[in-house]
Amino acid sequence: MYISCPMLSMHFELSSRRLHGAALVPPTLLVALLVSTSGCMTGPDAQQLKTADAGDAIPATFKPPELSTAEIAADPTAATAARLEEPLNLDQWWSRFHDDALDALIARADSSNTTLAQALSSVRISQASLGVTESELWPDIYAGAGYQRVQQNLSQLNIPGISADPYNEYSYGLSMPSWELDIWGRIERLVESSTADLHATIDDLRMAITSIRAQTATAYIEVRTLQARIAALDGNITNLTQTLKLATQKFDAGTVTQLDVNQAQTNLDMESAKIPSLRSSIADAIGQLAELCGSNTGEITVILGAARPIPIGPDAIAVGIPASLLERRGDLRAAAEQYHAAVAQIGATEALNYPTLSLAGNFSISSTDISGLGNISNKSYGFGPSLSLPLFTGWQISSQILMAKAGAEYAFNSWRGTLIRAVSEVDTSIAALAFARDTDGRYLKAVASASDTYRLAKSQYDAGTTTLENLLSIQNQLLDAQDSEAQARGLVASSIVQLYRVLGGGWEDLVPAGTNDENSTAKAAIQEADSAVEKSPARLAAESPLVKTAAKSTESGSNK
User: Fold this and answer.
1) Which end of the chain is less packed: N or C, by CB atoms within 10 Å?
2) Residue 551 placed within a domain
3) Which domain does 296 fall in, by range?
C-alpha cells in the first residue's frame, strides 16, 4: 500500500503483482472484490411524471366552448356543432376520412419521408451510445504481440559474462487495463441515463411520425379545398357565360344597351382571371406533398387522381377528453424521459464522492528466440486491485452534483412547460374545430339562400323586371358564399387533423391497411426502437431496414 497526493487529491492503491511465479492476489480477496460490485445505487430514483404532477394549470378534461344563447337562438344547429359526442379514436385517425388517396399519401410518407429517416438514424445513434455506456460495466481485454531488436549499453558497466551483442526479443500476451468495479452504481446510473436518452429519441421519432402524417393530411386537404374553390368558380363562370349570352341577345333585340354586354363580359373576364392563381396554389400544395412523401410532383399527381370533394371527417369528437390522454404525445413523453435521464445523472455524480475500486492485470510470454514463445516458463504476469478515494478536488465534485441537480430541475420545468403548451394547443384546437363547424353550417345556409336569390334574379332579368347590375351583384354574392363555404369545409377537415395531432395520435398502429409493411420506415422504426434496450447495438444494426436494403442491392448486383 502506498499514498500519493498529486494535485492535492490523495489516492490509496493496494497492489499485488509478480514476475515469473510470485504469489497472485489471494482468491478470497478476489471473491470479496467481485461480490462487492453488486453494491448500492447512489442518488435519487426518478418518478414517472404524470399530468397531475403539473399542478392546477392542467384541467382534468378538455371540453368544447359553449355558444351563447343568442348564437343558439340564431342557429339551433350550432349547439349540436359545439357538442362533440363521439368517443375519440386516435389510432389511424386518417382512415376516418374514408379517402383512399389520403391513405396512400400517408403510407408513402411513412416509407419515404426524409425527416422520419433522419429520426430513425437518431434512434440508432442513441442505441449505439447506450451500448458504449454499457460497455463500461465490463473489463477491456486486449491481445498483443511484438518484436524488437535490442542493443544494451553495457560498455560502461563492464560486467563479466554479459554480452553486449544485439539480440531479438519476441513477445505476446493479454492485458486488462484498469477496470472500475461499479460498487456505488455510478455506471449503472449512467446506463440508466443513456437508456432514458434512447427512450426520448424514440419518442422524438413518434412525435415526428405524428407531425409528418398531420402535415401530409393538411396539405392534401388544402389541395381538395382549392379544387372545390375552382369548381365553385367554374360554376360561376358558367353562369356568367349564360348571362353574357342573354345580355347579347337582349342587345341584339334592342332591349338593352352595349353597357350591359360590356358589364357581363368584364365580370366573366374578372372571374376567369382568378383560376390561374388557385391552380398555382394547388401546385404549391402538391410540391409540399412531394417533399413530405419523399417523391416527385408527377407521382403525387397520379396518386391524387381527378379532383374530388374535400374529405369529411367524423361528425363528432368526444366531449370531456381526459387530460391524461396528452401523455401519449411524443414531445411530452420525450421530455419525461429527459427528466429521467437528468435525475440518473445526479446519482452518477454523487458516486464520485466515494472510493473507486479498480482491477488491472496482464499476462505475457517473451523470449529471445521465436521457438521459446511456446515455453510457459517464459511467462510474466501481474494482477491486482487499486483503491482511489478523493480527499480534495477543489470542490469540483460538489459543483458537478449541483450541476446535475440543476439539470434535473431544468428538465422537470421543461416537461411542465411542454405539458402546459400541449394543454393550450388542445384547448385551441377544440375551440377551432367547434367554431369551424359552426362557420361552415352558416355558410351552407348562405349558399342555399344565395342560390335561390340567383335563380329568382335570373328569371327577373330574363323577363326584363330587374337590371343586369343587380343580377351580377347577386351572382358575385353566390360565388362569395360558395367560395367561403368551401374554405370553411376545408378548415373543418384541417381542424380535425390538428386536433388529432395535438393529442399525439397516429403512431401506435403505424401502417394503414393495404400498405407494404416491409417498406414502412415508420413501422420499422418503432418495432426496432421498442426492443432497443434488450438487443445489442450490433444486432440492431444488422436488422436495420437500411442494412437489409443495402444487402439486397448487393445480392441483386452479384446475381447479374
Assistant:
1) C
2) no
3) 76-139+186-354+406-535
Q: How many domains does the chain have?
A: 1
What's CA 319's distance to the chain center, in Å? 28
**Cα–chain center distance at 98:** 26
**How many alpha carbons lie under 13 Å from residue 40 in its C-beta half-sphere?**
8
Q: List the one residue out of 390, 419, 407, 418 whose CA is nearest residue 344.
A: 407
The CATH number covering residue 94 comes to 1.20.1600.10
Q: What is the DSSP string of 275-302?
A: HHHHHHHHHHHHHHHHHHTTS-HHHHHH
Q: What's the CA gap between 478 and 475, in Å, rounded? A: 5
Contact 116/209 with Cβ under 8 angstroms? Answer: yes
Long-range pairs, 391-397, Cβ under 8 A, ≥24? 391/5, 391/9, 391/10, 392/8, 392/9, 392/10, 393/8, 393/9, 394/8, 397/349, 397/352, 397/353
In a domain, 391, yes or no: no
Q: How many alpha carbons fall within 13 Å on the CB side of residue 76?
A: 0
Cβ burial of 377 (10 Å; 0-12, 13-18, 19+) is: exposed
Q: How far apart are CA 237 and CA 279, in angstroms?
A: 16
Q: Smallest Cα–Cα separation from 272: which of 228, 226, 310, 235? A: 235
In this structure, which amino acid lies at residue 445? K
Gap between the Cα atoms of 111 and 524, Å rounded: 9
Nearest to 193, CA basis, from 305, 320, 391, 46: 46
Report whether 429 contacts 499 (CB < 8 A). yes
Residue 351 to residue 335: CA distance in whole angstroms: 25
Report the residue count for the chain: 560
Helix, strand, or coil here: 178? strand
- Tell me the three state secondary structure of residue 534: coil
In a domain, 301, yes or no: yes
pLDDT tens digit at each of 560 positions of the chain = 222 233 333 333 333 333 333 344 454 554 454 445 455 778 788 877 776 666 555 555 555 555 444 443 444 444 434 333 444 456 788 988 999 999 999 999 998 999 999 999 999 999 999 999 999 999 999 999 999 988 777 666 666 666 667 888 999 999 999 999 999 999 999 999 999 999 999 999 999 999 999 999 999 999 999 999 999 999 999 999 999 999 999 999 888 889 999 999 999 999 999 999 999 999 999 999 999 999 999 999 999 999 999 998 876 565 456 667 788 889 999 999 999 999 999 999 999 999 999 999 999 999 888 888 888 888 899 999 999 999 988 899 999 999 999 999 999 999 999 998 998 898 898 889 989 999 999 999 999 999 999 999 999 998 888 999 999 999 999 999 999 999 999 999 999 999 989 988 765 543 333 434 444 544 554 455 455 444 444 344 344 443 344 344 444 444 44
Residue 45 lies in a domain: no
